[in-house]
Amino acid sequence: MTEMNRRGPLSRRTLLTGAAGAAGAAVMVGARLTAPSGLGSATGLRPAAAGVHPQKTVHLAGTDGWVSMPQGAPADPPFFPDSLAPAGFDTYVFGFRDVTGLSATQVAAQRGHAQISAPMLSFDEEDDIFITLSNLGLLQRPDLFDGHTLHWHGFVNAIPLFDGVPELSLAVPVGRDFTYFYRPHDAGTYMYHCHFEDVEHVQMGMTGMVFIRPKQNKAPVNGDPVGTKYAYNDGDGSTRYDREFAFMLTELWSAAHYRDAHIQVNDWTDYAASFWLMNGRGYPDTLEPSGNPLVTAAGRLQYQPITSTVTCNAGDRVLLRFSNLGYQNHQMSVDNIDLTVVAKDASLLRGRDGTTNYLVTNGVDIGPGESRDVIFAAPTAGEYLLYDRNYSYLDNGGGPGYGGMMTKIVVHPAGTLGPQTAANA
Q1: pLDDT (tens place) for every residue of the chain, 425 residues total
Q2: Taking the C-alpha atoms of 68, 289, 138 and 206 in order, what is their torsion angle to the nearest 10 degrees?
Q3: Which residues have CB under 8 Å from 131's CB, separation 6+?
């Protein structure tokens, strides 16, 4: 099947994408995409003077691979489990991997080993961020030449070149890499995803989260000690937290993933989710600890390495970051714990006159493409369910028992857990 037949008839969008691809091809040098003449480095911007803006570098790779939905999910022939899947896996995906620090040979070896959800990235306000994206191609579908991009959803970017929308900038062809540049000025919870054939690539798993940490962390307020963590520059310490946990909410349509693996075309108007995922996992897999996708002995969840279990001490202030890059609305709820929504779509809920508009609730609505920042005070020791209020999203492939978007908040007696080292740790 030709690429044009797979993608459908020629359209204005196709023409625009093709034009952007041609522009990208015009600036290829070796294995790297460089900026047009006159813009300086491959990022299009010259590095800032040392010490003015701390520089952070990340290397991500885009490819395909196989993951595992919860065991016991009923078969849905021929879509699930996929007959092409290697032992221990059942679902074909696209995804991003963190390959920072790996050699070129090691990076190339990650082809065919996609991860869902993508690595969680965190930076400070005013960092100079350089993210190199390598497109390793699709091992299962070498007939396709899909480009990949990084689009920071909801993020105010300086110029279109680094926005990741291929119609306005460019996409990274197979076998090439491109370095994006960002200098964030606003704290908050953001998302990133591939914007090339975005309906397909987002559904296939190319989604991740970005946290921008506020300047206030370096200048605590209200007498808070150095090292106090805040979600935003609130000025009064109201977004202070002790521990943080993040959740990328998505759905997975088994039929679409099967068709991509078997060289078939999807009609996206038939969309009907089969699994509902938190950080790429459905319950009870959401309770398994985080892992390292580079460790081959990690088992069936090797390429779904991010836990969704919340662990804290009684009395801790806990920050929950929710992002939704699925196609359905979700209301995440906790019984017997008050949740305070402090921010929506990376914006602190505070009026221009300083009036606080925080919302206290036990159910947080997150629509497609939206994010929420929520803080709660951990109650007495015990276990509390965090789940989607829509019970039809609490199963795995229509099977019996609980599944889908559910996890636990595990509260330990005060002083049990030491300081948290990273989100979801």
Answers
A1: 333 333 343 333 333 333 333 333 333 323 444 333 232 333 334 455 556 899 999 999 999 999 999 999 999 999 999 999 999 999 999 999 999 999 999 999 999 999 999 999 999 999 999 999 999 999 999 999 999 999 999 888 778 889 999 888 889 999 999 999 999 999 999 999 999 999 999 999 999 999 999 999 999 999 999 999 999 999 999 999 999 999 999 999 999 999 999 999 999 999 999 999 999 999 999 999 999 888 766 789 999 999 999 999 999 999 999 999 999 999 999 999 999 999 999 999 999 888 999 999 999 999 999 999 999 999 999 999 999 999 999 999 999 999 999 999 999 999 999 999 999 99
A2: 100
A3: 57, 58, 59, 60, 121, 150, 179, 180, 182
C-alpha dist (Å) from residue 31 to 4, 57, 129, 231? 26, 19, 21, 39
Closest CA to 340 of 214, 191, 232, 220: 232
Residue 63 lies in a domain: yes
Q: Which amino acid is at 36?
A: P
Main-chain dihedrals φ then ψ at residue 174, nearest 5 degrees? -60, 135
* Domain containing residue 167: CATH number: 2.60.40.420
CA dist., res. 410 & res. 280, Å (int): 20
Q: Answer left, alpha or beta for residue 38, where phi above 0 means left and psi between -120 and 50 means alpha.
A: left
- DSSP code for 350: B
Whether 201 maps to a domain, the answer reads yes
Does residue 37 sit within a domain?
no
Number of structural domains (the chain) is: 1
What DSSP assignment string belongs to 3-41?
A: HHHHH-S--HHHHHHHHHHHHHHHTEETTEE-PPTTS-S
Residue 38 lies in a domain: no
- Closest by CA to 96, choosing from 113, 84, 80, 109, is 113
Count of Cβ atoms closer than 10 Å to residue 151 Cβ: 23
Residue located via tokens 């040098």 = 29
Cα distances (angstroms) measured from residue 343 to each of 204, 325, 377: 28, 17, 17
**386-407: buried (b, 16+ CB within 10 Å) or exposed (e) per residue?**
bbbeeeebbbbbeeeeebbbbb
Q: Which domain holds residue 87?
A: 54-412
Strands 207-213 and 188-193, bridge-based pairing: antiparallel
